[in-house]
Structures are given as structure tokens and as C-alpha cells.
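Field reference: "sequence" (input) and "structure" (output). Example, diguanylate cyclase:
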Amino acid sequence: MMHLPTIISISILLNVIIGSFLLSLYFLRQQSSYLYWGSSCLIFVCAQIAASLRVFIDFPIITHYLADLFIISAPLAAILGIHAYSQSDKKCRNTCAYVLVAAAVILLLAFDSQFSQLITTAIIAACFSYAAFALRKLHVKRIMHLVLLKLCFVIHALIMVTQFSLLLSDYLGLLQTDLKQVLAVILISHIVITTLTAMIWPLMMFLEHEQVLSDLANRDSLTGLLNRRAFISVSNNYLEQANNNLTKLCALMIDIDFFKRVNDQHGHETGDEALKWVAKKIKSQLREHDLVARIGGEEFAVILPNTSQAQGEILSERIRLAIHNDSFVHNHHEINLSISIGIINHKSGTNNVNELLAEADKGLYKAKLNGRNQVVTMAF
Ligand SMILES: Nc1nc2c(ncn2[C@@H]2O[C@H](COP(=O)(O)OP(=O)(O)OP(=O)(O)O)[C@@H](O)[C@H]2O)c(=O)[nH]1
């Protein structure tokens, strides 16, 4: 059997560290989800300290009543944290306050009886079930962390439902056995899983914000493709590798034909949707390690590593046909789009991707002059 005081001490320490970290993030970024989650960790610490005092003092208003209120407040604060992240915490704040006030009144009438434990357990079981449900509102890219968090809440809710059933059976005199051991195991699970939940949340938030910052710096916000700066930086690495390994690499410059007409005839919003559609079409024809970026208004660039000129031409033709043979449909309007492509195969020793793109651009210019909707290959 695990040593309960040791587990409580470790949990208090971890929750103090995580809670303080989240509160300092709140003061730095002024995002209330950090305030709620930080408070949730510190309230849970207060709950553990108040409940642990039962061994030393006989003062149930603190060791039972206050401890129970803290135990209920911790998941309520976590729920507010979830809603604050999806900016829907205003309505939820009142509901949480009502639950807390109702619990405070009911527990005041029964805080020194077995009944208080039943009420506390029922409320936190409901809180954890709701928290798992509320997570659906979070739009995060790291699904794995979200699944883990949901799992923690669901397991926690199940543990609390088990405790509630045992306590109720005992209260009604249906059980002949001593519940002490089982309740101790449930208590340990409650402490461990709360601490685990407190650890997953900041990790998920941290990685999520890193992703947002990285996207802001490296991605085109309309299409989600790389922007010019990130594209040039990664392409130069690809070029260096191609030179070192003596492998072939192709660069493509792609431009949508007569795109001004799309904007003029259907409006800028339709033009934006058309850009997204073309970006998707281009990406759908590429391999995972090919690079694609939107480097200008209606201009895209592609780098194909480990690709010979013949392979690059086949792929360019595939991209062109994917757009030419399909129609972009928006607001019930069917719009036929086409693209022109300039392609160049790199010459060993070329170490600046801008040189390659300039050559591919010459091919693109020729394709436009020749009547558009075609691929033109350039050679060094
Ligand atoms: N909707 C939308 N339009 C854009 C964006 N960036 C550039 N454009 C438009 O793209 C059009 C580009 O037009 P042009 O450079 O004249 O070329 P084009 O009409 O595509 O003709 P060719 O390239 O010669 O075939 C302009 O009307 C720009 O306003 C954007 O982010 N969204």
C-alpha cells in the first residue's frame, strides 16, 4: 500500500509549483484561463492541507467543512479555465457561483456527518463529468493532449461515482465490510489523477501557444502554406543537402491565370476562397517532404527534393491538370481556373534558392506569353 502522507506531500508540492507557474503566466499574458487553472491547483492544495489537519486538530469547520468546499471549488475553477480558453466563461461563472453557494449552505447543515461526504462526492463527480464534456469546445491542434485530458476527467468522474455508490450503500446499511481501505485507495487515485490533470493542462497550453507563434511567423494565414521567409529558409537547407548528396532537385513557380478577373467578377472574398482551393489542389499532388509556399498574391513556389527534370515535369503537369480538370465552386458559382508553371532543375553547386526561383520565374513568364495554362521547363 502506498504511503498516503508521502503522496499528499508530493501532490501539494507539484500543485504549488504548477499553480504558481500558471498564475505567473496569467500576470504575464493576462489570459484568464491561466488564472482559473492556477487557482484550481492552489485551491486543491488548500483542500489537501485542510483535510490533512484532521489528524492533528478536532476542528471540523476547517478540517471537514472548509476542506469539502475547497475540494468542490478546485474542479469548478478548472471548468471556468476550460470555458475561459474558448471565451465562453461569462455565463459559466454564475452557474459555478450558484453551485458553490448551494454546496456551502447544504454542507453547513451537515458538515460533521457522513452525508456531507456523499454530497461532496456527488458534486465533484458531476463537475468532472461536465469538464470532460466541456472540453469539446476547445479547438486545439494537439488532439493527443486533449484526449489525455478528457481521459483524466472521465476516469476521475468514474472514481467519484464509485466512491458515491460505496458511501451510499454504507449509509443505507447495505454493506457489511469496512470501507476504510477502499476509500484510502480512492483518495490516493483522486490525488494522483488531479495532479496529473494539473500537469497536462499547462503542457497542452504551452505547446498550443508555441504552435500559434510558429504559424504566425512561418505560415500564410489565408492558405496555411509556408510563407516566403520560411520557404526560402527551408529550401536553402534542401539545396545544401542536394549539393552534398549529389541528388537532383526541382523548383517550380506557379501563378493563377487571369486571377484579377475572378476578383473583379466574383469579389475579393471569392478570390480568397479560390486561392485556398488552388493551394489545396497543389498540395494534394505533392509528397510529404515536398515544400510548397504562397510567396505572392496569386503566386506559389514549390521545391521537389530528389526529383529529376523529367519527374518534375510529370508532377507539374499533374498539378496543372488537377486544377484545369476540376471546377472551383463558391456560392453556387462554378469558376474554371487554370495555372501556368515555370520549372527548373537545379545545377549542382547552386546554393541560393532565389537563383533557382528566378530561373523558374522566367519559365513562368514564357508560359504566360505562350497563352497560359501550361508548363515551361527552363535549363541552366
Ligand atoms: N482575393 C485575393 N486577390 C489577391 C490576393 N493577392 C493578390 N490578389 C489579386 O490577384 C490579382 C493578380 O492580378 P495580375 O497580377 O494582374 O494577374 P492575373 O489577372 O492573374 O493575370 P496573369 O497572371 O497575367 O494571368 C490582382 O487582382 C490582385 O488584387 C489575395 O490575397 N486575395
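The domain at 228-378 is CATH 3.30.70.270 (Alpha-Beta Plaits).
The chain has two domains: 4-217, 228-378.
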